[in-house]
Amino acid sequence: MPLLRRLVLLTFAALALAFPATGARADAAEISAIVDRFATASKFPQVEAVIEALGAAGDPLAVPALRALEAGELQVAPDGRVVIERGDALLDPVTLEAAAPVEGRLKKVRTKNSIRRMIGDVISGLTLRAPEPAIRMTAAETIFASADAAQLDALEAALAEETDAGVKSRMEEARAAILLTASDDPAVQMAAIDIIADRGDQQALAVLATYANQASNADVQAAAREGVAEIESTLAMWQAGQNIWYGVSLGSVLFLAAIGLAITFGVMGVINMAHGEMVMLGAYTTFVVQETIRNSFPGAFEFSLLIALPLAFLVSGLVGLVMERGIIRHLYGRPLETLLATWGVSLILQQAVRTIFGPNNREVGNPDWMSGAFMIGEMSVTWSRLWIVVFALCVFGALLFAMNRTPLGLQMRAVTQNRRMASAMGIRTPWVDALTFALGSGIAGIAGVALSQIDNVSPNLGRTYIIDSFMVVVFGGVGNLWGTLVGGLTLGVVNKFLEPYAGAVLGKILILVFIILFIQRRPRGLFALKGRAVE
Amino acid sequence: MKFGRRTVLGAATALATMSLAFAAQAQETIKVGILHSLSGTMAISETTLKDVMLMLIEEQNKKGGVLGKQLEAVVVDPASDWPLFAEKARELIAGNDVSAVFGCWTSVSRKSVLPVFEELNSILFYPVQYEGEESQRNVFYTGAAPNQQAIPAVDYLMNEEGVERWVLAGTDYVYPRTTNKILEAYLKAKGVAEEDIMINYTPFGHSDWQTIVSDIKAFGAAGKKTAVVSTINGDANVPFYKELGNQGVAATDIPVVAFSVGEEELAGLDTEPLIGHLAAWNYFMSADTDANAEFIEAWKAFAGEDRVTNDPMEAHYIGFNMWVKAVEAAGTTDPDAVIDSLIGVAVPNLTGGYSAMMPNHHITKPVLVGEIQGDGQFETVWETPGLVAGDAWSDHLPESAPLISDWRAPMSCGNFNTETGKCGGQGS
């Protein structure tokens, strides 16, 4: 690859000498002629040659064709024309006007990672002077990461006329990244190191570390090493914050998985092994909702999760209700039999889902507002995780309200605390039992909607969460919602601080050992119920 | 209306003959056992293999069966429960008298049935890529050995992508552990420094990949081109790839090459953010050959329009055709005769070549490296120039380097130690 890059550079230099006009803008016809060469480029090196030629032409007109190539949309018709296939439409790769229809099968111009990298570099060179600051910013970022010396001239030219301060500083950093390797002058390199070290993020670290590995000048190398150390110490501080965030986010997932169980097991005392399957049913409800939306109302996809929430609550709640009425109510006071019966139900539910939906994972898409990440300083926060944390808190709030401020909640608490007295006061305890169980199951169902965003939607989904759920509820204190919240978050954060040192496998084991020891000392968990309710 | 006595008699005779013939035919079937989990955690992968076997058997029967007899599939469900695999294998061989068994996915299930096949002397075709370090007389390994998947993939990354820093990430069980051991030895032999290799194991079904993905990002920021070699098992892949996508780890920066992710696994994912991540297999559904087009068409007609094909399915396709050919060459389904006649059998594979059964009970295959596309398919970006013969005992591990396997007489040994000149170098 380095050899290839050198060759490319040489070609560039030769071209520049032969045609002084290179770099000046070519016209559309010229670009079209180059783009048409993709038609005969069946091997990767040939594709690379065409991309180089487009880069050398130096005209932003080539950008749409390159972007299409990157996205795999650039196609060759049997008659040798090169077109962009976007959805059902065929476009001219340069003018982007509708192209004449094609007879026969289109053949894709093939790409691979190294070619896509090359496209990224060429596009950034061509878009350095694009009218939109955002595009110029991306271009500068790409050049910074690749430190491609071929882009230096274009970068200098763009820098001279850049007006946006943010973009300008990015471009200066990109220039520094190039100069660091391209220049032989220690003074220039030192200045470059300063600029890059000031940037202080992971990419800057990568650029400096690359250079530190191969520097020729000892002084400059030492400065680069210093810069690396400086960035690393800043990043280490952010790392702690990052770990807390990961812990909170894992904790919120654990909490969501466990909160339904906190009701069925915590409040009612039913050892419900089918709890995980309620979560799974919620996830499958999301899948069905998304599938329906995809087929019938593609526009509403962004709202699919909001639609799925109440439905998942209903589906899982209904299954829970049937379970309680059909099986569990006959087994109150017999924990072992309840355990076996609910275990059986969980197997039945799994196999039923497997029969209906097939054993494979089902694709549940992330709406746009749940994809990607944003940065807080050097901490990256993924949107899906953030929303799940927010969602977990909402569920917690709603549940707390339902338990403490609604008549049903009052009756639930009354029945759990003193069944006979509650019954004597005219509460229909069997129905309260059924509704409580349905509520717990329904909450598990909406947890499933959230988990479908980060995990597999497969019949085994519930299996992965059942142990963790019991762990959280027992650790947090049976019968206490606050305990589940604090328990889930604690376990999440502890787990995430252990993981970098102990590894994921050992981390999990340590957590288990920790909980066992903790339960030895405090058998009732973090937040033990006091007083009569204990009996 | 009146029937003549003769007509009635004739009809009766015809009926009797027919039913006799039918009865005779019903008795004269060759039974083929299918030992794949249809419930439990592994059902996700194995159910498809059961289906593909049923399809292959049905097609063979349309062509007139084997040795003039129809084939009969005997399907059992070992329910992803390893000891149950052994019981079900015994049931198939001793109870149902099957001539050969196609089955197993995980190495532990294979290990659990080995003694049964040895004791009852039957034949197992094992269709999944595995860690190697095994060659057993009754087992034919139609999936890839490490030198048919992992090593070429690493070579590709090293030579074509210029990767110098490696993350070996796997699920914590025998296949990733052994494969990573082999890869680590191989990388070090190629001059990769200790600190440029990061090894990471996660539990089965691991779903919170935040820390690991951000570790990988940090590891990749050390100024050398970095790649991830993933032996992460089935289910854990979806959250792993989702996290990669969300944290913006693009294939152009840090490519991930996976050995357990095929078309089937991608079916549960939005592959748009994953474009360019790699997988190494011996077959991709996108292979542009007539045999493959035919196979896909038959599969879709059999199993449904939206189904995909994958590498272990091709392994069963090859294994089944090898078995058919070997049985016909031997003229009997007697296990000893078939085991002997299987060696050297060559049948077309789906990527446009021929795969042959080697004396070590592994087969020759091409190795393909493919990039994930937006439509959930792979596009082949590199392949080995010729076929690669499966190596049962890795040359990159000191303890297995001197071992070879050759089941032909007079050696007839699965672990012949070339240093001591004795059979039985290690294990069985």
Automatic annotation (TrEMBL), chain A:
<feature type="signal peptide">
    <location>
        <begin position="1"/>
        <end position="23"/>
    </location>
</feature>
<dbReference type="GO" id="GO:0006865">
    <property type="term" value="P:amino acid transport"/>
</dbReference>
<protein>
    <submittedName>
        <fullName>Amino acid/amide ABC transporter membrane protein 1, HAAT family</fullName>
    </submittedName>
</protein>
<dbReference type="InterPro" id="IPR017779">
    <property type="entry name" value="ABC_UrtB_bac"/>
</dbReference>
<keyword id="KW-0813">Transport</keyword>
<feature type="transmembrane region" description="Helical">
    <location>
        <begin position="500"/>
        <end position="519"/>
    </location>
</feature>
<dbReference type="Pfam" id="PF02653">
    <property type="entry name" value="BPD_transp_2"/>
</dbReference>
<feature type="transmembrane region" description="Helical">
    <location>
        <begin position="472"/>
        <end position="494"/>
    </location>
</feature>
<dbReference type="InterPro" id="IPR052157">
    <property type="entry name" value="BCAA_transport_permease"/>
</dbReference>
<dbReference type="InterPro" id="IPR001851">
    <property type="entry name" value="ABC_transp_permease"/>
</dbReference>
<keyword id="KW-1003">Cell membrane</keyword>
<keyword id="KW-0472">Membrane</keyword>
<feature type="transmembrane region" description="Helical">
    <location>
        <begin position="303"/>
        <end position="323"/>
    </location>
</feature>
<keyword id="KW-0029">Amino-acid transport</keyword>
<keyword id="KW-1133">Transmembrane helix</keyword>
<keyword id="KW-0812">Transmembrane</keyword>
<keyword id="KW-0732">Signal</keyword>
<feature type="transmembrane region" description="Helical">
    <location>
        <begin position="431"/>
        <end position="451"/>
    </location>
</feature>
<feature type="transmembrane region" description="Helical">
    <location>
        <begin position="244"/>
        <end position="271"/>
    </location>
</feature>
<dbReference type="GO" id="GO:0005886">
    <property type="term" value="C:plasma membrane"/>
</dbReference>
<dbReference type="GO" id="GO:0022857">
    <property type="term" value="F:transmembrane transporter activity"/>
</dbReference>
<feature type="transmembrane region" description="Helical">
    <location>
        <begin position="386"/>
        <end position="403"/>
    </location>
</feature>
TrEMBL record, chain B:
<feature type="signal peptide">
    <location>
        <begin position="1"/>
        <end position="26"/>
    </location>
</feature>
<dbReference type="InterPro" id="IPR028082">
    <property type="entry name" value="Peripla_BP_I"/>
</dbReference>
<dbReference type="InterPro" id="IPR006311">
    <property type="entry name" value="TAT_signal"/>
</dbReference>
<keyword id="KW-0732">Signal</keyword>
<protein>
    <submittedName>
        <fullName>Amino acid/amide ABC transporter substrate-binding protein, HAAT family</fullName>
    </submittedName>
</protein>
<dbReference type="Pfam" id="PF13433">
    <property type="entry name" value="Peripla_BP_5"/>
</dbReference>
<dbReference type="InterPro" id="IPR017777">
    <property type="entry name" value="ABC_urea-bd_UrtA"/>
</dbReference>
